[in-house]
Amino acid sequence: MPKLLTVGIVAVVVALTCSLVLVLIAPLNQRARDRARSEPEAEELFNRMEKQCLDAESLQCTFEGKMEIGGKPFPYSGSLKVAKGNKVRLEYTKEMGGLAEKKTAIADGDQMVTISHGKRTEPTKAPKWLSQAVLTAFTRDCIEIVMPGWFDYFESGEERVPDDFKDMFFMSQLVMAGTQRLAGKEVRTVKYRLKSKGDDWPLQLLLDAESDLPIKRILTFHAGEDEVKVTETYGAIKLNEKIDEREFDIKN
Predict the structure, then answer these.
(1) Which residues are CB-contacts of 166 (< 8 A; sequence separation ≥ 6)?
(2) Whole-prediction pTM
(3) Angle between the 130-140 and 40-55 helix axes, to the nearest 10 degrees?
(4) Could you read off the pLDDT of 183-240 as tens digits, one per residue?
(5) Kind and range of the H or E run holding 109
(6) In this structure, which CATH number among 3.40.50.2000, 2.50.20.10, 3.40.930.10, 3.30.1330.80 belongs to the domain 40-243?
(7) Contact at 8 Å (CB) between 149 and 160?
(8) What is the mean pLDDT of residues 61-86?
(9) Which of 126, 152, 127, 148 minimizes the C-alpha distance to 137?
């Protein structure tokens, strides 16, 4: 092969390799820049809250909220119970068009089912990472936004291994946004941006100044021409308390 042609091929290969490397590292560099925009105090506060939830032997909470689409409200409520051993119970009711839709998802550590409109799905295998994924989603996003996806997943019965959950719900630009009193409690607010599946949304998380646990979360974004606002309030979050095993019985 002529020397000049060989040199040309090598140059093309090197150029393509460099381009590929740049394509691969560009998102990483962007994420590093996004992280650098966070305030250390806000990041530390959020990390304390999240660590409590992820490390707990169990987590229980109730929630209620309202999704407003173009100013029209759609209320919802429910409860979440998660325990070590990959056990999850989520109950969720949403009102739309004057009708209440109720769903329940249960994982007993081995199998999982959903109950919707009074019908129970056949049990499917629960992935080993399910409870940690649910907790990560709970600490970073509104239940109203992520949980319908969990129901779809439960019902699909697919065995999928996701990327790191914290990358699925990538947070950046965490900043402190003041202190206030809410329902007799001192509350600290953290603002941040959440990137998940191509979306990039601004959120506010209100944390109990004493326990560092969530009290309320507010999300705003646009769907077409409509502004969408989700306001979600959490009841007392209980950590490390014994949960009756019957709550995780897929036949219950």
Answers:
(1) 136
(2) 0.81
(3) 150
(4) 888 999 999 999 876 778 999 999 999 999 999 999 998 888 889 999 999 998 999 9
(5) none
(6) 2.50.20.10
(7) no
(8) 94
(9) 148
